[in-house]
UniProtKB/TrEMBL annotation:
It comes from the Bacteria. This is NAD(P)-dependent dehydrogenase (Short-subunit alcohol dehydrogenase family). The lineage of its organism: Bacteria, Pseudomonadati, Bacteroidota, Flavobacteriia, Flavobacteriales. Gene3D superfamilies: NAD(P)-binding Rossmann-like Domain (3.40.50.720). InterPro entries: NAD(P)-bd_dom_sf, Sc_DH/Rdtase_CS, SDR, SDR_fam. Belongs to the short-chain dehydrogenases/reductases (SDR) family.
Length: 257
């Protein structure tokens, strides 16, 4: 099986930490030129990767990024829309204000739409390319106490991705979704800490509640690299007939196939 990405140009949003960093490193190791987008510069210098600081929730940002990348590299082959987070407080509908819904939809849905729209003219002109939109299993199995607005934005992302795959297939462009479950990332640990603080419990008790709520048969969180390995397969030439599909990486937590 050929996992080489030599000569390919790949963009990874939210690529300085957690799942995004694992994906960016994997694509770099496969030979791709990787451009990493994040709000703030990484604590450690990126190895053989091009970093662009940007806030993707701001309208117009995506166009500026696209112009820089196409001018510098002349093409775009892979887009990994990984940037996203559960920004809102838990507790259900009564604690969610308009700003919570707007913030979650801006980051988890509209930022993806904007990046894809900005880069797709170049990808269509090439007549090939791959887009991976990183979603979450919470879009299929929302947890009202924890993920209501976040889940709704990611559910919209899933529907958008399916529609986009149908539209872009004739242009030689594949679009797939990867939906992680609970993954041991800085954002997840911060979420658990905030949950513990809000409930007046310890991190261990909050973690136990999350695992009991999600019900992971493998009984552990995923490592970011376990998600990255699936992404690496989907963007490679080993997956040239796979598009419009949503893959769960959740340790068996989703109760349906």
């Amino acid at each position: 099986m050929d996992y080489s990405l030599n000569g390919k140009v790949a963009l990874v949003t939210g690529g300085t930490k957690g799942i995004g960093k694992a994906i960016a490193d994997a694509l770099r190791d496969m030979g791709a030129q990787v451009i990493v987008i994040a709000r703030t510069e990484p604590e450690e210098a990126l190895k053989e990767q091009h970093f662009i600081a940007a806030d993707l929730t701001e309208a117009g940002t995506a166009e500026g990024i696209s112009k820089k990348v196409i001018e510098k590299y002349g093409r775009i082959d892979i887009i990994i829309n990984n940037a996203g987070a559960n920004l809102s407080p838990g507790g259900g509908f009564s604690v969610l204000e308009d700003e919570h819904w707007i913030n979650d939809w801006q980051l988890n849905f509209l930022s993806v739409v904007r990046i894809n729209k900005a880069f797709l003219p170049a990808m269509i002109a090439q007549k090939n390319g791959v887009i991976i939109n990183v979603s979450t299993n919470a879009a299929k199995q929302p947890i009202w106490e924890m993920t209501m607005s976040y889940s709704s934005a990611k559910a919209a992302l899933n529907a958008y991705s399916k529609a986009l795959a149908s539209e872009l297939g004739p242009h030689g462009i594949r679009v797939n979704v990867v939906s992680p479950g609970v993954v041991e990332t800085p954002l997840m640990l911060e979420f658990i800490d905030n949950m513990a603080k809000a409930s007046g419990t310890s991190r261990e008790e909050a973690f136990k509640k999350v695992m009991e709520t999600v019900n992971v048969p493998l009984n552990r969180m995923a490592e970011p690299e376990e998600v990255a390995r699936l992404v690496a397969f989907l963007v490679s030439d080993n997956a040239t007939y796979i598009t419009g599909t949503n893959y769960s990486v959740d340790g068996g937590a989703l109760p349906t196939m």
